[in-house]
Amino acid sequence: MTTTTFINARLIDPETGTETTGSLTVEAGTIVGRNLAPRGAVVDCDGKCLAPGIVDIGVKIGEPGERHKESFRTAGEAAAAGGVTTMVTRPDTTPTIDTPETLAFVTRRAREVSPVRVHSMAALTKGREGREMVEVGFLLDAGAVAFTDCDNVVTDAKVFSRALVYARSLGALVIAHPQEPVLTRGAAVTSGKFASLRGLPAVSPMAERMGLERDMALVEMTGARYHADNLSAAASLPVLERAKAAGLDVTAGVNIHHLTLNEFDVGDYRTFFKLKPPLRAEEDRVAMVEAVATGLVDVISSMHTPQDEESKRLPYEEAASGAVALETLLPAAMRLVHAGALALPVLWRALSLNPARRFGLPGGTLAEGAPADLVLFDPDVPFVLDRFALRSKSKNTPFDGARLQGRVLGTWVGGERVFG
């Protein structure tokens, strides 16, 4: 049995909401206690932060079909370097993960080459086409942790409601990307003066609210478990608040880019800032940060979406959406801490504890008996990000050349060091 004691650590515990100084002992891959007499290998944290490993939901991997953009090996290495100990991956692959056989393939590939834990979501409808529901029961048996068509909105309310009813009967979690698809189609930025000056096709943030309103009505009708994966607009928050107050089994997440960037960062058509949904107004960004602070928005994720150079080096409206973020998630989130918007335990509640609980995964806590999935990091060390130093195959980050603070010093999965 491998035993390790971490001494002189700032222990960040999102479950108790505390930050304390002390030691943590792990044995055989499990946390066994705090402030015990040191035994086994000793890691001197030198006053740096020790927290549960990040549980990142919505990670895009290029296997199968787009391995040139990202593989399980490169994504796993990037995750470990970013303090992410669990990736929950998306089914928007080629082919779509909509059968037990495809799910078994990606599960096997991840187990073979990734240094971090990987759990896969499956599509909600076959081919993510919104017409025919997948075999939810068989995919659950094969290991799917949730069901989603990603950014393909199921426009047929009857199909979506039937899928929600069936998912509820099996206790399955449904993940949705709320948008009104007709309004959103072809949009590249958020509507407003900036979009008009740039001459770019735009969409109002109300499209997100309209999509969420529809979904909440269907969730109320069916009683399904539901998670909105990528909220970005202040207009959506009252809808979410009402749904939670009504007792619906609903949670929501936000992309780290929508917490730290706004519409003006697009600048002169910089395609690394083209995301889905598009970057919003500063008022929306501030509202989303406040929603995380109060707990209204439950989860912060990277929405890691690798794109190759050819798909980004195009006119803004034609370029692919998305950004890599496994390695930049933690330092970007430190912007919120250094600005005084979020305390570290609150931040880790959204990065680790809440996503672990929502997906029924172990981890997200420093409690005795929890898996020894840990990240040691210095929240203050400054650096300038060089995208070519990222471990992801694709380098499409909006933080290229940005001054950031916060660096991962070590990552452990099941008590075994996988980075640092």
UniProtKB/TrEMBL annotation:
Domain Dihydroorotase catalytic residues, every copy: 47-231
Name of a matching Pfam family: DHOase
The protein's name: Dihydroorotase
Keywords per UniProt: Pyrimidine biosynthesis
Occurrences of domain Amidohydrolase-related (ranges): 320-418
Gene designation: pyrC
NCBIfam families in UniProt: pyrC_multi (TIGR00857)
InterPro entries linked to this entry: Amidohydro-rel, DHOase, DHOase/Allantoinase_Hydrolase, DHOase_cat, Metal-dep_hydrolase_composite, Metal_Hydrolase
